Amino acid sequence: MASVFERDIHYTVDEKQKTVLLSEQGYEDAEEILGVKDLYDPREQWASYVLNAVKAKELFLRDVNYIIRGKEVLIVDEFTGRVMQGRRWSDGLHQAVEAKEGLPIQNETVTLASISYQNFFLQFPKLCGMTGTAATESTEFESIYKLKVTIVPTNKPMIRKDESDVVFRATTGKWRAVVVEISRMHKTGRPVLVGTTSVEQSDSLSEQLQEVGIPHEVLNAKPENVEREAEIVAQSGRLGAVTIATNMAGRGTDIILGGNAEFMARLKLREMLMPRVVKLTEGSYVSVKKLPPKKSWKVNEKLFPCKLSSEKTKLAEKAVNLAVETWGQRSLTELEAEERLSYSCEKGPASDDVIAKLRSAFLEIMKEYKGYTEEERKKVVSAGGLHVVGTERHESRRVDNQLRGRTGRQGDPGSSRFFLSLEDNIFRIFGGDRIQGLMRAFRVEDLPIESKMLTKALDEAQRKVENYFFDIRKQLFEFDEVLNSQRDRVYTERRRALESDNLLSLIIEYAELTMDDILEANIGSDAPKESWDLDKLIKKLQQYCYLLNDLTPDVLSSECSSYEDLQDYLRLRGREAYLQKRTIIESQAPGLMKDAERFLVLNNIDRLWKEHLQALKFVQQAVGLRGYAQRDPLIEYKLEGYNLFLDMMAQIRRNVIYSIYQFQPVMVKKDGDKRENKKSEKIVTNGSGNGNPNSVGSVESSSAAATPQSSA
Fold first, then answer.
1. Dihedrals φ, ψ of 8, to 5°?
2. What is the per-residue DSSP string for 562-597?
3. In 3D, which of 602, 614, 633, 638 has the Cα closest to residue 486?
4. Cα–Cα distance, 9 to 22 (Å, whole number)
5. What is the rounded distance in angstroms from the CA atom of residue 255 to the CA atom of residue 252?
6. Are the beta carbons of 667 and 677 closer than 8 angstroms?
7. Within its chain, how far is the Cα of 667 from the centroid?
8. How many whole angstroms from its chain centre is CA 27?
9. Residues of 552-581 as b/e, b for ≥16 C-beta within 10 angstroms?
10. Helix or strand or coil: residue 346?
11. Each residue of 98-118: pLDDT tens digit?
12. What is the rounded distance in angstroms from the CA atom of residue 195 to the CA atom of residue 182?
């Protein structure tokens, strides 16, 4: 349906808010195709499925927002360009993307627990950090983390030239200019690093460079490139090297002009060591005909600056042979082997003979390579150093600065230049009327536009985007603050149940509070004694706990003259009933009650907290509409969230105490087991109660409170 629907006829797209809205025509056609009268009918809510299908078509693009690996849709992080393994979009959106791509649709994931990054970091007693690009975000650090940003001067003077942006009207002109710039730099021998914002763009540019015959490396979220990530980045500073990278957000390896001799030496040693000490991967393979892929650590020979001399090769082979003799032939996992190799290539103390031998081989190889890389470095420096080409302004100046910052490290020469188009997403969505007017005014596609007014407008658009996303993060943080206090309370209760040896005090507290709830729901604190409906109260109490069968209206009337007396008396009876139950169970199976209590508390906390998170998600969506009634959505969310939280905590204690009152272990004798206390238990309701009352004022059947299965 989504594929036949047309934009601006059946639906409109708001790229800024990342939402879609069906038009009247869209509603009518969708209802006709599906054969329903109302898309929002609570019994069959088709609306969410239709909207998700349109979102998947318009807003979630292949090789931009996600890639496909095998039969899976994998999300690509827009800031780092890396695949977010194991992450899925919620509310049926991931399933809509799977359906769009014709892949097997997997089940919806359920949120068991959630926390915002801001609140996660604020859990730590002390916070600090270091980054090269925090200056533009100092307001956010101050307002959310109460951290001041201090700028430390560079170790050596920074001599990088940041050249002015080149702006084109259309994207076609921009990409042609990028290819010309790369070609011009490549001829002079300068290494070039190109930053793109999506996998699709990097592949497209790669094709254009192949057409003009410029050798290059591509680094993006595709699996074949990810494995060689550090290898590609380490050699981006070689003479004439061209590297296309998706969002170079601090790839963890410095780009050294002339090539990274240390990294090359490590790769050479790894190539020799790994195949001999790593054991073959175990595990079943689906296809019998197709053998599992054989892992190879072989590196492209072009990466190394020279062929290793026979003397150094023999030295490395001796070290590898010693490692194989000591550690065993193919006896380590890949992770263990990588760890040992990593330690061998560091400068820490090495008392182990094998590590010492590997280190001396590594240092000798590095020394040989360094002779060549130093020569190459001089050539690169004289040519002008690394040149960075940016192909689009990012939503945050930080990421642009990170890309620029890859060149001109430690006093090296270098330059950077951004090529932009007025059709780029950031200017198209956030540019406003001024940029739209400029687009109409400039009709030439291939000639760059130079205008102070234009540069100012582009900077303004980027600042607008930053503020927009900062406001979203701030709002998210404020809403999560409400949840944070609730999270602390629930997790404290859960930790108490996990770590405590004896839950007696907690269960007594639950029993007393549940008695208060029943009393409040059936009589009320302000009701006069004459109007007390004691029969109704007793019926409800006995439904909760069959051990209170001796309660009669006469007993309550004689024992209690006021509401406070009645409250104290029922608390006492609730405590006594629990202690009596505990004694009965302990006499049948010593130690069982402790396990059952822990199970019941944890089971109910986990289940109800999960439901509470879902409920709060719906509340957060709903309160946004209350702004139209001049009511602050945040205050409304706080009130609603607080009431939901109180209900959840009451529900936890009611479920737990009800399950404990009704708990009956059933002894099951096992073959060949002489001990009598071998058992499996299950909850059975006894006598008065036929279900787990969700409400303390009315009877509702729901025996899914808990059924602990354990054996001692």
1. 70, 0
2. SHHHHHHHHHHHHHHHHHHHHHHHHHHSTTHHHHHH
3. 638
4. 9
5. 10
6. no
7. 46
8. 34
9. eeeebeeebeebeebbebbbebbbebbeeb
10. coil
11. 888 888 888 877 777 778 888
12. 12
